[in-house]
Amino acid sequence: MLTASYAKINLFLEVLGRLPNDYHQVNTVLCSIDLFDSVKFALTKKGSVKVWCSMPELNGNDNLICKVGNYLKDQFRVPYGAEIELDKRIPVAAGLGGGSSNAALSIAALNQLWHLGLSQEEKHEIAARFGSDINFFLEGGTALGENRGERISSMSDILIRNILLVNPGTKISAGKAYGATELPAPGETKLFDPKDPVATMFNRLELAVRRLYPEVDSLLDAIAGFGAIKSMLSGSGSTCFGMFEDEDGMAECQRHFDKMGYFTHVTRTITRSEYQECFPS
């Protein structure tokens, strides 16, 4: 089974407070984009889960794919194994959900390969054990994430083209970004309007990340300087994105950051039906 593991951007991320489990309570709008990792799953009789990745540092049992696979194997006493090849294109620890996407895809793919017969609700329960974004990637498209982000409600697709992703290579801990973020006072929380997404896009973590990481601060200013109608941090970063009406300005911006050695990618949001076409059912 060879399939795509799509990334996401956050069009909106408001932090509402702290939960009893020490996670932060969020209200976030996530969109699938057409940047993806390629993942190949093969059924084996060896009885073990093995992961090979194009980024060697992601090999081994710490990879979320491996953690999910071993959990499913132990929980459901699966006599078979799996060999999984991950061709990594999504930057790591970058606010694009690459690891979470890989984990969600693994739940769905191994459910098929190992004939587990999991319902969608059961897949969501498993996903929530391993992270806050994984549940979104079981659905894709555009969705609202609530609580710590694992409570997902599908929304009407928000279609945006001419999005330039730029990542400076800085790895940012989500815990550090959330920990440095000042919570809004009562009555000062932001709201997202799906009828006017660009005007109401917002990321509560951005101010803290800009303060902690000067390279992100200057990156966002530079994207705006090239004519983006909106520049914003995705998730906890460090990937920033700009939305452009002028494709020439976007191309000039991309060339500028390519010369600096940054990761860049021109992308668009994708619909839930596009996402599900490539997702194991």
A few lines on this structure:
By secondary structure, this protein is of the alpha+beta class. It has helices at residues 64-75, 98-113, 120-130, 134-137, 174-179, 197-200, 206-212, 214-225, 247-259, 272-277, and strands at 2-18, 24-44, 49-53, 81-87, 142-146, 151-154, 163-167, 202-203, 230-233, 240-243, 263-267. The chain starts with a strand and ends with a helix.
Backbone shape: globular
CATH topology of the largest domain: Ribosomal Protein S5, domain 2
What is the architecture of the largest domain at the second tier of CATH? 2-Layer Sandwich
Helix and strand run: EEEHEHHHEEEHHEHHEEHEH
The stretches of 5 or more residues where confidence is low (pLDDT under 50) are none
Give the % helix: 25-40%
What is the CATH domain class of the largest domain? Alpha Beta
Can you characterise this structure?
There is one protein chain. It is built from ten helices and eleven strands. The mean pLDDT is 96. The strands form two sheets. Strands 1, 2, 3, 4, 5, 6 and 8 form a seven-stranded mixed sheet that branches. Strands 9-10-7-11 form a four-stranded antiparallel sheet, with helices on one face. The protein folds into two domains: 2-155, Ribosomal Protein S5, domain 2 (2-Layer Sandwich); 163-267, Alpha-Beta Plaits (2-Layer Sandwich), CATH 3.30.70.890. With 281 residues, the protein is α+β, with helices and mostly antiparallel strands.
